[in-house]
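Before the break, one more example. Copy the sequence into your notebook; we will annotate it together after we see the structure.
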Amino acid sequence: MSKYCNFTINAMSKLFSTYRAIKYQNGKLFEVNDQVTTEKALQISINDIHFAVVMQTPGDEINLVTGLLFSEDVIDDKTKISFETKISDDKLIQEVNCLINSNEIGDGYKNSRSLLSVSSCGICGKKDLEDLKLNGEKLTQLLLDSSFIFGLKKQMQINQPVFPITGSTHGAALFNKKGSLLGLKEDIGRHNALDKSIGELLIKGKLKEAKILFFSGRLSFEIIFKCFRAKISTIIAISAPSSLAIDFAKEFGITLYGFCRDDRYTRYA
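Here is what the structure looks like once it is written out:
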């Protein structure tokens, strides 16, 4: 029997996950059950050879893979392709194997490192699910009070030169545990903004001082992954986290805040 099975599953029930969280609003803290978008890793293989890993919301995997391969010049509109899917223990598709005649595979197959689509290019270059693993001791968490958190937000907003003009950049501000701003970078890509901030402090020899990230964008797995590697133990975001971001934050010992807007936030881990 093949290690793959031709099987399509309705993943609608897996689009959301429920997490217990602590919400701050109107000057009060209270427990909530929050609905969080599910994020899962999907292995893409071509003729039984691993090609790339993408992070995605379950469902429409065949459409996702087809569109990705077309966008990356692996296939064109005339390419004949069939699919095999491998199902994980949670009954979701975890791998799609694309069967393509070798004579019909385009030039994009030669360089999977250039992939443009991985939850907005967060883990470009990963070809195997095993590549997503990161070992290390749990970080020391920081629990912050509301006035401290909103103070960080104000510092970030004051020091963003591009966003007030364009409204189209993401910001990644790194602080020490006392709340002093160490560096802030903006970029059209949220992962780029974080990479720039980490890179600047690394070059200056100050990365070890960075303990808090205030982030403008959505929190997906890759952001948690990058922060754990940089030993940044607290992440505060204006936008929402994904399910995988929360799961890995808990595993890595990272305190995670989302929806930090106006006079409210939600602490997930």
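The chain has six helices and twelve strands. The helical segments are 61-71, 146-158, 163-166, 190-204, 221-229, 243-252. Try to locate both features in your own notes.
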